[in-house]
Amino acid sequence: MIFEADLQSWDKLGLSEATTERVRSLGFTAPTPVQALFKSLKFPNLRVQLITGGHSIQKDVEKFEKMKGAHVVVGTPGRLADVLSARNANNNLCRYSRNLEILILDEADRLLELHFEILLGNILAVLPKQRRTGLFSATQTKQLDDLKRAGLRNPVTVSVKEKHNLKTPVQLQNFVTQVEPEAKLSVLVAFLKQHRTEKIMVFLSTCATVQYFHTIIKHLFPDLSMLLALHGKLRSNRSKVFAKFSGTKSGVLLCTDVMARGVDIPKVDWVVQYDPPLSGSVFVHRCGRTARMGNEGSAVVFLMPNEMSYTKFLTLNQTIKLDPMQAPENVEDVTDVIRHLEADNESIYIEAMRAFVSYIQSYRKHECNLLFRVEELEFGRLAMGYALLKIPYMPELKGKKLSGFKPPIGIISHHLEAKRAAKNARGGSKRRYKKKRKNSDIISTDMNPSAKRRLKAQLKEERELDELIMDEKLIKKEKLHKITKEQFEERFLSMDK
């Protein structure tokens, strides 16, 4: 039995002072029930060894010898396969693997999705045939059936599920909201404001989108109790972010599918699937972050009009029924606010571009490519949904119409005048900048670092000014009908080539 007192502090688990301090520095203030399990078992002689990468195989072998063997070995498929295949005279860990009684493969379907089939085959080949093997998985896949036939003897399936024939808990309410491409971000912000006192997870398709949305929502909604971001490229602070969101009662976590499974975050009120997942099984795992352990919860997926057939697919493929939910009323359009942020801050401008490009590229890789077709995307309206100042050059957009994209004429003119005024206030001249630009190739040898940094900043500002002037001229030509709309779209698109 795990007592509540065991979950209050790491000190109760008998860890060394150095280990306890290190764990706390990562942001984990208290152990989870699983981490407190070994103390509650009261097996003082239970020896457990962790085998993962990051060091030599010999260190794992030496640790095994020092512990005089282990009752439980926990590891990753890659390192376990390496250790078990290292057949040398001192590798007792490999030899003693013949005495294995129980093998557990947790998240077995995920291991197969990550293409560990060969490694798992190598591991199973070394282990004794007379053993008990458990495959634990939240979803049933064809690969899992194949593994059962190839690696298990007399397999028996044990299903732990609700009485109802559903893939998601009965306490979970599943909704779908149809949103126009250009209004999607505004609807999300309105939704977050409407549910500001609740705990919400927002799933996005790419790391770049998570980063961009985190930046702009922080500006749009400064009084939000907590706004966090977590994705696959976030390494150093991932544990702290996870612990912080787990411990809060209200707040928003923007994340990719790195948080879709294998994690337990208590009392999540809403799961928002801003971007539909790449597969039906991931949809189930995302929804599973709420309505856990008998608690109630809600999930909503935002779909554009061309994606609404996805609801029928989920009903047939995953036995999931989605109830329609209207978008919040009186949604404020945040496009111009974000565009002003981009015009003022180049890093936000770059984040917006990267997010848009990564979204299109991710969309192309969707497993349900018969339902999610890049050819059916309205790129101009999508770009408005990302509040882009201009549409980046992409091979996917070549020859595509960009109807629905509204060039930010007023914003460009406003920032152009501001830059001109700032330049005039400093008494600078374009001719002087151009002269320095011609000599820029000898600057690195003739100038000290501080002067070189100042000049680089001046030249960068000049380039930005030139780009704004070009944008303004192009917009005026289109407005005066000196060029066609198609010519405008082609030239405006190619400026970032």
Automatic annotation (TrEMBL):
Known function: RNA helicase.
Biological source species? Varroa destructor (Honeybee mite)
Q: Where is the Helicase C-terminal domain?
A: 171-335
**Keywords in UniProt for this one?**
ATP-binding, Helicase, Hydrolase, Nucleotide-binding, RNA-binding
At the top level, the lineage of the source is Eukaryota
**Which Pfam families does this chain map to?**
CTE_SPB4 (PF13959), DEAD (PF00270), Helicase_C (PF00271)
Residue ranges annotated for the Helicase ATP-binding domain, each copy included = 34-158
Show the domain comment: The Q motif is unique to and characteristic of the DEAD box family of RNA helicases and controls ATP binding and hydrolysis.
Q: Which GO terms describe its molecular function?
A: ATP binding; hydrolase activity; RNA binding; RNA helicase activity
Q: Which residues form the DEAD-box RNA helicase Q domain?
A: 8-36
Name the SMART domains for this protein. DEXDc (SM00487), DUF4217 (SM01178), HELICc (SM00490)
**Record EC number:** 3.6.4.13
- What ranges does the record give for the region Disordered, renumbered to this chain? 423-445
Protein name as catalogued = ATP-dependent RNA helicase
Q: Which CDD domains match?
A: SF2_C_DEAD
Keyword RNA-binding among record annotations: yes
Substrates-to-products reaction catalysed? ATP + H2O = ADP + phosphate + H(+)
- Give the UniProt family note: Belongs to the DEAD box helicase family.
Enumerate the InterPro entries for this protein: DEAD/DEAH_box_helicase_dom, Helicase_ATP-bd, Helicase_C-like, P-loop_NTPase, RNA-helicase_DEAD-box_CS, RNA_helicase_DEAD_Q_motif, SPB4-like_CTE
Sequence motif: Q motif, positions: 8-36
For bias type Basic residues, the affected ranges are: 428-438
